[in-house]
Amino acid sequence: MHATDVTNASRTMFMDLETLQWRDDILDAFGVPKSMMPSIRSSSEVYGAAEDSSLLRETPIAGILGDQQAATFGQAAFNTGESKNTYGTGCFLIFNTGEEIVHSKNGLLTTVGYKLGDGPTHYALEGSIAVTGSLIQWLRDQLGIIDSAPEVEELARQVEDNGGVYIVPAFSGLFAPYWRPDARGAIVGLTRYANKNHIARAALEAVAFQTRDVLDAVNADAGVDLTELKVDGGMVANDALMQFQADVLGVPVVRPVVAETTALGAAYAAGLAVGFWSGLDDLSANWQEDRRWEPTMDAAERDRQLRLWRKAVTKSMDWVDDDVK
After folding, report:
1. Contact present, 165 and 304 (Cβ < 8 Å)
2. Among 14, 31, 43, 196, which residue is least crowded by beta carbons within 10 Å?
């Protein structure tokens, strides 16, 4: 069996989003023989079974979803307008656009969300942020400000605000929604007053600000404002970050009981295929809220912070010249 599903196939950029088939012209342009490509199947069906010699012993293989699509499915974001944001090494926000293909005009990627058996294809918009959790790793490994990742929250809580310091972690350029490979990382607003606590707080806030930039693009493309954001991934254990995320978005941020939703989403797809669950309503009922953060920041202060953040972003651009490696 050589097969993949529509979500993974869409990530190759070789698949037609409407027909769900490999595009001959794109394959030809890259010199990829169509004969080597897997068949494209739905995200939830029985594709085959494990061989007798394996430990799985004829266990059916029944669910395939790409990484971020699986996390979205695990968050039970099945319907139009629902979304999730995964906080890992980078951040990946997916917004469900339902059965409609929305071609972004604001720097997002159009992708397949999921397809269950013979059911309709559900599409999504995705915003990819390159550096979030890896920014905290940088504070630890390159600067030595912290010894372990959880310490960043302890430092950030030592100060009431960022002291005017903003970090734009464009270590390899800026991803969504800017797509500026010429950008490089910048720390701006430094004064003699700034200390490592402000740096730590600015690092956490950079994660939230980048997510706000992506959500603004989502709202512009979809024409529907987000009412709440479901979150998952390793960084959602950071309460200070989650509170600031709610503040800078102006909408509630919700963490589920199961924060590692990628494996859960793939299991959901497989469970539907073999009849362990009867439908999406069962999965929605299985989702449980662990904690909710409500925005507390004054709207004027939010606008001020966003203005300064966006000014900081402009300072990171146009850095790479022809003679800069």
Report:
1. no
2. 31
